[in-house]
Amino acid sequence: MIRFDQVTKIYDQNSRPALDSVSIEVDRGEFVFLVGASGSGKSTFLRLVLKEDRASRGSVYVAGQNVANIPSWRVPRLRRGIGVVFQDFRLLPNKTVFANVAFAMQVIGRSRAVIKETVPEVLKTVGLEGKNQRMPHELSGGEQQRVAIARAIVNKPGILLADEPTGNLDPTTSAGIMNVLDRINQNGTTVVMATHDDDIVNSMRKRVVELRNGLVVRDEAHGIYIGESKVAE
Amino acid sequence: MRLAFILGEIGSGLRRNLSMVVSVILVTFVSLTFVGAAGLLQLQINQMKGYWYDKVQVAIFLCGESSSAATCAQGSVTDEQREGIRGVLDSPSVQQYVDTVEYESQEQALAHFRDQFANSPIVDSVTADQLPESFRVSLKDPEKYEVINEAFSSLPGVEVVIDQRELLEKVFSVINFASGIALVIAGVMLVCAILLIATTIRLSAFSRRRETGIMRLVGASKAVIQLPFVLEGVIAAVVGAALASATLWSISHFAVGGWLAKQYPETAFISSMQVLWIAPGLILLAVLLAGLSSMLTLRRYLKV
User: Fold this and answer.
1) What pLDDT is recorded for position B132?
2) Which of A193, A201, B103, B142 is spaced 20 to 30 Å from A153 by Cα?
3) pLDDT of residue A227 exceeding 70
C-alpha cells in the first residue's frame, strides 16, 4: 500500500537529511507504529506519503503509484484515498460535529443525500452517537479526536495516517482512541500511526518501525516501544 | 451540491471581509469611471469629426481696405483680381480637388456674423466693410488643404488662406489631452485596484486557512478551494464596474444630454446610449483585473 524505496529527504543542505535512504513497505490492511524521538523523521514520512513534500532522492509509492509521477492536478485524488488525523484535532470551531464531518464530503462534491446517510453512520463507528449537533468546544479532547477520526475516514480512504493522535490525551482516553483506530484497521484500512506513547505501542503489539536521525533502526512485526537495540545500549 | 457549497463559501467570505470588499468596490468604481470617461471623450471626438469634417471648408479671404499682407499692396481687392482668383479656382488643376465653391460677399459675411453672435453686443459695432469677402471652398478630400494654400496664398488680392479644420484640431487636441489625463489617472487607480484585490484575497485566504487546510487534506480539488476566493474578488470588481457604468450613464444623460447639448445645440454630442457600448467593456475589464490578480495571489498564498 505504501512503499518507500531508498527515500532521502533533505530540507536544508547544511544539516543532516530528515530521512536517509529509508526503505519501508507497508502492506494493505497493516497497522504500523512509527516511533522515534522528535526530529527522527516521522512527520517527514507522513508528509511524503501525502505528497506535501517531494523526496530529494528515491521513490515513494502509494497504492502502487509513484507519487513523483502524479501531476499536481491529480494530487487531490491521491489525498482522497488517505485520511489524516493530528495531535491538535484541527476541527472547525464554528461548525457542529455533524457539519465538521460533512465538510469533508461537501468539498469533494458528495450529494446532500449521501452526506445525510453517511455521516451519522461514521459518527456511530467512532462512538459519537447522539452528539451530531454539539459544537467542538462542548466536547472532551477524546471526543474531539473522534470527530477528527470520523472526518478522516468518512470518504472511506484506503490509508489512515495518524500523527501523534493521542499526544494531547490522558491514558484512558487514549486507549479509547486506539480502540477506534484498531476497529477501523479491522475493516481493512491501512493505518500508519506516528507516536511516542510507549504504553500504547506496548499494549497493541503491532508492527513497530523505529526511526532515529532519519534512519530506520528497527522494524519488528509485533514490537514494543523500546527495542532490543536500545535496551542493550 | 458543490455549487451551493461554493456559493456559501463566497457569501461567508464577503461578509467576513466586508470593509475590504467595500474598498475594492470603490477603487474599481473610481478607476473604471476614469477609463470609461476617457473612452467617452474619444467617442465624442469621433462624433465631432464625423459631424464637422463634412462642413469644414478652406476659406480664401480677400484683401480688404485695412489688410496689411504683401499680396494686398494695392489695397482692397479689385474686380480684376477677384476674377483672376475665380479663374484659378475653375482651372482643371485645382478643380480636381474641389467639391464646391461659394463666394461670400461682405454683406453676406456680416449677415453670418450677426447670426453667430446674435446675443453679443459686438454685433452692433461691426459694419460690412470691416469683414473680408471670401471664397468658401469645400474639398473632396479635406487632407488636401496644402494644395489650395500653395495655389492661392501668393496670388494678388488674397489676404490669407485658412483651413477651418485646423481650428477643430485645436479643439480635438484639448479633448485628447483631457482623455489622456483621464487614462493616466485610470492607470494609477487600476494599479491600486489590482494591489487592493490581491491584499483582500490574501487576507481572506488567511482568515480561512483552517478550512482550506482541511480541504487540502481531504482532497478537495484546486477549483473548489480557490474558486470562492477568485469569485469574491470578481464579484466586488464587477459591482465597481456596474457603479462606474451607472455614473457614466448619468453624466452623459444628465450633464451632457440634459445641459451641454442645450447650451450648444449646434454641436453633436454623444448620447447616453453610447455608454451602453462602453459598459460591457468595463465589466469585462473588471473581471480580467480581479481574476488575474487573484490568480497571481493564490498561486503564492494558497498552494494546493
Assistant:
1) 84
2) A201
3) no
Q: Which amino acid is at B6?
A: I
Q: Retrieve residue A232's grid coordinates.
A: 542493550
ipTM computed for the complex: 0.85
Task: Write out pLDDT tens, residues A162-205.
Answer: 999 999 899 999 999 999 999 999 999 999 999 988 889 998 88
**SS3 sequence of chain B:** CHHHHHHHHHHHHHHHCHHHHHHHHHHHHHHHHHHHHHHHHHHHHHHHHHHHCCCCCEEEEECCCCCCCHHHCCCCCCHHHHHHHHHHHHCHHHHCCEEEEEEECHHHHHHHHHHHCCCCHHHHHCCHHHCCCEEEEEECCHHHHHHHHHHHCCCCCEEEEEEHHHHHHHHHHHHHHHHHHHHHHHHHHHHHHHHHHHHHHHHHHHHCHHHHHHHHHCCCCHHHHHHHHHHHHHHHHHHHHHHHHHHHHHHHHHHHHHHHHHHCCCCCCCCHHHHHHHHHHHHHHHHHHHHHHHHHHHHHHCCC
A50–B217 C-beta distance less than 8 A: yes
Q: How many CB pairs under 8 A join A and B?
A: 60
Selection from A154, A156, A159, A165 nearest residue A190 by Cα: A159
Q: Give A2 or B117, the one with higher predicted confidence.
A: A2
User: Which tens digits make up the pLDDT trace of A86-97?
Assistant: 999 999 999 999
CB B190 within 8 A of CB B288: no
Quick check: B215 contacting A, CB < 8 Å?
yes
Of A73, A84, A152, the CB nearest to B222: A73
d(CA B226, nearest CA chain A) in Å: 12
Average pLDDT over residues A56-65: 94
A131 or B58: which leads in pLDDT: A131
Q: Which of the residues B208, B216, B218 would you substitute to probe the A interface, choosing the one with the greatest number of A C-beta atoms within 10 Å?
A: B218
Q: Is A213 left (phi over 0), alpha (psi -120 to 50) or beta?
A: left
In the prediction, which pLDDT does A231 show? 45
Q: Which of B5, B217, B222 lies closest to A84 in CB terms?
A: B217
